[in-house]
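Researcher: Re-running this chain for the archive, since the previous output was lost when a drive failed. Same request as before.
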Amino acid sequence: MNARLFALTPLAILSLASTAAVAQAPERTIRRDIPMTNMIRRAHAAGTRDSTGRPGRNYWQLWTDYKITARLDSATSTVSGRETLSFRNNSDSAMRTIVLRLDQNIFRPGTQNAGGVDLITDGMKVTRLVVNGQTLDVTDTLGSPIPNTQRRTVPLSRILKGTSARIPLATPIAAHSTGTVEADWSFQVPRVEGPRGFRMGRWADTLYQVAQWYPRLAVFDDLRGWDSEPYLGNAEFYNNFGHFDVSIDVPAGWIVGATGVLQNPTEVLTPAARDRLGRVIGSDSVQRIVTATERGPGKSTTAGTNGRLVWRFAADTVGDFAWATSNQFVWDASRANIPGRGPVPFNVMYLPGHAEAFAPAPRVVRHALEYYSKLWMPYAFPQLTMVDGPELGMEYPMFIMSAVFAADHETGHEWWPMMVGVNETWYGWMDEGFNQYMNILSEADLDGKPYKLDSLGMSYGGISGNELEPPLMWDENYAGPFYGFVAYGKAPLMLSSLGGVVGDSAVWRAMSDYAKAWRFKHPSPWDYAFFMNNALHQDLGWFWNYWLFTTESVDGSIQDVKTSGRRTTVTVRQNGQMPAPVTLKVEFAPAGPAIRPMSNSKMADANTAIVTYPVDVWFPGSRTFNAVLDFGGRGISRITLDPAGRFPDRNAADNVWPRAVAAPKPAGGN
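Model: Regenerated structure tokens:
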């Protein structure tokens, strides 16, 4: 042994050992698995979900049945209602509490919110609440004692002032048995005087958009049990599927559009309106059901009783119910031809003064219903209604509040989350982000132009590394100032990048199969990632890890190009932590020997080849890769790394060889 070593201190010896270990470590270590949290591990162990990405053999979810009667008092803009909810506990555990959603309380003064809610009301007033046969005291002064996590008592009246109310049960609801909730409640529809409502609202006392409007049972699932996340405004919803039977009492002469199918047209519609509706299914033309001149009892509707009418709607296998009403609506209707189903009617209701703005709506809605039915799976519902009003873009089952510019997007939400019931509160990218991606395809198709997904994936390189950006797997209730990008913007970039790995059409086929597998169920991000792995026949753990769980980029570049004889060696470097395949666009000199294609290349045209190396070349841990090109001695004039711009990169200029030379500044210039 070297005697000099004995003269070193223990700290110095430790430092030498550490230096040696670092020298032997790879330049970067690439994580290739999908991180698993305790929640998803438990679900896999229970067999409710598994690594196939499909619902597991023991998968379950609640089923809810709502019967609601509601009344609009236009003089006070108050909606009052009574509901009976029955639900089946399909889990293997007893429920000792239930959680109710009271979203109208976001409009109460002092309620926590993250969306800048500036519409103020008294929120939802619950005046009667019966849970599983137990009548609860809902008064402000004598609230029933409710134990919280600190084992203190909190009046029920205070619990009912939040957007999420956890209520203990006197008798637990056993597994595979049923529970009930009865409630009476009321609230004032917020008046909108600015440019836009907040998911709902009213214009004066003549048009009402009503949503998040009844006490709703929260989701109880195999992942987290009760979903008790508060409604903070930005992030949206996570709902059980079930059946709705809803009666809405409004003044005669008012038109009502809603989730579901109208059950009593003879009681509320004039013979002329019913006759026109009967023609809708037989033609692609737009039918005018109620015109601008047909207003008032006996013209737009029947006369009613005591000046009022009750509109009754039924909706099956939906996660929510919303509606709108106005005494000024013009009502148009047409149909969409759904592959595998045939014609499905849709309605467009708008104010007479907005006729010109809404004229393109039938074309946009029809195209969206038909296009997304072909892309993912057939539209499953019996109709769709689009309504005018202060909310310019919001979606509910079979029902959208939308201006025309947002109609394609809002219709797209009928796939996610209305048919594929994702948790929007936690993972908005699984509905908003997927929707933004498919809107790119739909809008190009509507305009008769090629879709453009190139450059999207690369653009993330300019965002990656911003400390304000949370990963996609962050609870989006708390996504902060980057909420819009995380919920809407990043998923299209991710799917652009995935198309760069497997091809866009392969992505579409896999997502179509995913949608069908989780139709009217509740997939998690892990289910999606595992399903896509299996559908694409690739282990994409590296891809999902970096796009979903990190904010890393690829940051690729061409470091060097050397030619020796017939061979050209291109040294590619990736400075980021995220790996990506190596795709090179090779442009040849116009004259020379015949081009001899390589096994991993394809000719884009007579003088251009695309050469691809799989992402696996990075797995050993190097940051550089030497791509050896041999095209039979043909001279190369230009090489571009990631020519389609599919992978996150901070600087596209260093992806090109030879480098562009900056023009010299003119003499005397600044």
